[in-house]
Amino acid sequence: MANFKHIKVVSLFSGLFLITSMAIGENDNTPPDVLNACSQCHQHTGNAAIPGWPPLNTMTKQQIISKLKGHRNQIVPDSMMSKVTFELTDQQIEDIADYYSAQEDISQQPIRVITPGN
Q1: Where is each Cytochrome c domain found (predicted)?
Q2: What is the pLDDT of residues 5-16, one digit of tens each?
């Protein structure tokens, strides 16, 4: 009987851990692993690291999906993005779009200057 109680307790805690993990995962805005390639030029914030390149955090999810699939399908031949996107799956593109479309556009926010004594 003691073993049965032990199994019930372990099962209960395992279930609670699983439910808690799922709930945390739903609200977490952790970048998908595939984002490492994107962030080299677009940073994790979505702001372009190179002047003139598009900031992804100002686009909608659908715009990002459309652009990534367009590059993957070589609608823009010989683009740098075609080389980056050619192996992306639809799910990876969706994950990238979910992440970047949820980022705040900080490109137009004023820069706060800190001076000694303030």
Answers
A1: 20-104
A2: 544 433 433 443
